[in-house]
Q: What sequence folds into this?
């Protein structure tokens, strides 16, 4: 492979990462608008119901898994599915009922640092002094955002409900990441399709019991659901995995910070305001997360 081929492959990987994170950012903005008309449970259920068939088709034709082996591995996928695709998205959409997409994405930016803490506690992974400093800085940034630049007010007034729900969301994603380290032998798209099916099966009884199947009539909401079901749920994941064949994982992980950047840019473009506290806190979080992962980034060729 020539240097030109490597450069072209790297460029393609970067473009794939940019598209994946842009679509994930769209989930915050469009999801925030959708929860004004549909419940978080319905939005979560419909999102993965829409994504299910495309994921199964992609898994079948791209990865060609042994479906009997997939069926045997399914029990090991249930818990990750409940904590990741189900709980995280339900809590995210619940948070978006009470807070802005910008605020939610800024809190979500702390997730890599929270995962590092959990990995140190439960997986005995060593944290360097630089990483500890990065975590402290990122946590300070989150508190700055939650308090609107006045941390002392948290003692007197506590946290907003949307902020608490968003912290709960990144906690469930941290659990998902830790327990998801167990090897199942399934290819990535196939594993996601199985988790997606698990979410659809798990949410269906609750949707039916609460109000029965509800098909939105508003065209704008329908298009929002189609976007959320196809782009953040299917396209982002496929693009991310394609990028990982071109770019080392540690470097690709840095691109996750662009979810926050894109969410802010989209929101501001649509007329939402960015407060000074959010700007300062967001920079603190992003810098803290970068320092938490800086060693892995440096060691990657």
A:
């Amino acid at each position: 492979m020539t240097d030109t081929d490597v450069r072209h492959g790297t460029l393609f990987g970067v473009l794939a990462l940019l598209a994946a994170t842009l679509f994930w950012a769209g989930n915050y903005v469009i999801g925030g608008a959708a929860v004004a008309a549909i419940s978080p449970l319905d939005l979560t259920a419909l999102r993965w119901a829409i994504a299910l068939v495309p994921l199964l088709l992609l898994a079948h034709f791209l990865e060609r898994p042994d479906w009997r082996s997939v069926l045997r591995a399914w029990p090991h996928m249930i818990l990750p599915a409940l904590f990741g695709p189900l709980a995280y998205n339900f809590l995210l959409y619940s948070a978006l009922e009470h807070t802005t997409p910008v605020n939610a994405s800024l809190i979500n930016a702390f997730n890599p640092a929270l995962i590092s803490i959990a990995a140190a506690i439960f997986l005995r992974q060593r944290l360097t002094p630089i990483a500890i400093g990065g975590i402290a800085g990122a946590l300070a940034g989150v508190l700055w955002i939650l308090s609107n630049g006045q941390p002392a007010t948290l003692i007197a007034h506590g946290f907003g409900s949307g902020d608490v729900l968003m912290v709960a969301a990144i906690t469930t994603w941290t659990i998902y990441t830790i327990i998801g380290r167990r090897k199942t032998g399934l290819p990535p798209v196939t594993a996601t399709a199985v988790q997606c099916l698990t979410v659809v099966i798990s949410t269906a009884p609750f949707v039916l019991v609460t109000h029965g199947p509800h098909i939105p009539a508003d065209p704008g909401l329908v298009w929002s659901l189609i976007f959320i079901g196809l782009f953040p749920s299917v396209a982002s994941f496929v693009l991310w995995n394609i990028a990982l064949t071109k770019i080392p994982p540690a470097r690709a992980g840095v691109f996750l910070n662009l979810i926050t950047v894109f969410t802010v840019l989209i929101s501001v473009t649509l007329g939402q305001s960015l407060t000074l506290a959010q700007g300062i806190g967001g920079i603190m979080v992003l810098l803290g997360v970068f320092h938490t992962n800086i060693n892995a980034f440096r060691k990657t060729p």
